[in-house]
Design brief:
The protein is about 10% helix and about 45% strand. By secondary structure, the chain is mainly β. The protein has one domain (about 1-115).
Length: about 120
């Protein structure tokens, strides 16, 4: 069981979307869970360096971002309940983004993800 999940997007190690609270997830043994949150960055204050970098990358049409997922993991081993473990997932992605475009952006390449528990 994954709970207290939040997700956000960062650029150059600074959050550019507010954290989005996600519903708890239950994952069966040897299975996959898919979710599709919509992360929006309206109204998030960023540094001048981040703002300028986003403008430059957007003009080029390619932006490197990091999607971060934080939460807690709980599981049972037989009839024994385990404790709670922090989960930290970070996925480095590259998206195609053009100035003035609104809507889903194309993912360029395969995301590189790392999971820490």
């Amino acid at each position: 069981m994954y709970d207290k999940l939040t997700a956000y997007v960062s650029y150059r190690n600074q959050a550019i979307t507010p954290p989005l609270l996600l519903p708890p997830l239950y994952q069966e043994k040897k299975s996959t869970v898919v979710m599709s949150p919509v992360l929006v960055g309206a109204g998030v204050p960023v540094s001048v360096e981040v703002s300028d970098g986003l403008v430059r990358d957007e003009a080029y049409g390619v932006v490197a971002l990091r999607v971060v997922l934080l939460g807690r993991l709980r599981w049972k081993a037989g009839g024994i309940k385990t404790g709670r473990y922090g989960v930290y997932v970070k996925c480095d992605i590259v998206v195609g983004l053009k100035k003035g475009f609104v809507g889903p952006v194309p993912l360029l390449g395969s995301p590189q993800c790392k999971v820490d528990i």
